[in-house]
TrEMBL record:
Gene Ontology terms for molecular function: oxidoreductase activity, acting on NAD(P)H
Signal peptide: none
Database matches in CDD domains: enoyl_reductase_like
Protein name, per record: Enoyl reductase (ER) domain-containing protein
Domain Enoyl reductase (ER) residues, every copy: 71-394
Keywords for the protein's UniProt record, in alphabetical order: Oxidoreductase
Recorded family membership: Belongs to the zinc-containing alcohol dehydrogenase family.
Highest taxon, organism lineage: Eukaryota
InterPro entries recorded: ADH-like_N, ER, GroES-like_sf, NAD(P)-bd_dom_sf, Trans-enoyl_RdTase-like
Amino acid sequence: MCWKSLLNLLKRLRRNTSKNDAISAKINVAKAAQESDSSLSDSTQNSVEKIITETTTKPQIQKALVVARKGEYEVRDDFPVPSVAGGEIMIRCDFAGLNPIDWKSVDYNFCIVAFPWVTGREMSGTIEKVGSDITDFKSGDKVWTSTYYRDVRAGCFQQYVVVPSHTVSHIPMGMTMASAACLGVPALTAAMTLWKWLDIPLPSGPQRLAETSDDEWLLVWGGSTITGQFATQFASLSGLKVITVNSQSTKALSEKLGAAHVVVRDGKTDLELVEEIRLVTSGNITRAMDLVSSNTAAVALQSVSQERPVHFAPLAFMSPSQVIPDNVTAHTVEMKQYVLNSANRCYADELNKIMSEGKIMLPDIVQIEGGLEAVPVGLDMLKRGNMGGKKLVVKIY
């Protein structure tokens, strides 16, 4: 092959870096040819070296599901693979968990920093690369993570994700990769809401609530949601009695998870629901979380204790005009704090400990095949509802 033809070939390859193996082979040919041909002119030598340098240093590309425009997804094959800093970890996304925030942020155009953008808040995967400062993880480790929407490198709907090392945890022993994809949002949200914001002691702490209080209840409005399922179990481990609000079809699920009482909402007015909750708990609900809507948040507030101090977490939404009783502290749960403050790693560690001990029943997993192209299909399923307490995850890799 003449050098002019080789140069043209390298230029074409440089514009098509998705064929990495072919590029590597041709670069090696070019390097060998350079080494064997001392008669190469200086200008040609410089041209070949420049093309080889540009080709080998050009960022690799990957497949990603991007929000290309308002409300519109596209699967792209030429999205850049993120770079990795010293305290960061690159993970190959094997399974991505789907959550309501994923479709809501796209439909209502929030938490989208720019276009194109990559969303997705939780995943399980295999470590591809670790930064120079990392000593407790290595390539090949199986891990899970929870991510922050403002960093496009951390969006889970792409093949390779880069996140701060403190947000990465090894998958607990005995847990499948698919099941681990539900730890980063619902499990961690339930854990941090209870242990950080609602002032419930860690299950492994020195004292359970039952040992220090006479009769305290946690209200979980939306007991069959994945977050509600985890919250019911975590609170029970800490010694709290749990009362949930469910549909008739998921009543048995919450009872199986340890709820002391399940209020079936079907066919009942708000007043009837409040009366039943207060009757069962004798007005002793001191913690409450709503996982449904602003309307149910308002009803939940009517159901809690009217005398004792109450911690309330409106996780779905609460109207800005909602009146908060004087004895109630309404907490703004910001899961981004897990990413922004490395001290919050303790909650993931506690979560992993509980999971490793086999104390928690995991939600039923509905696994969707098809890679990134299947994510919008799964999100549409989630949007339509009626999941019956099942968790959707997509097999990406």
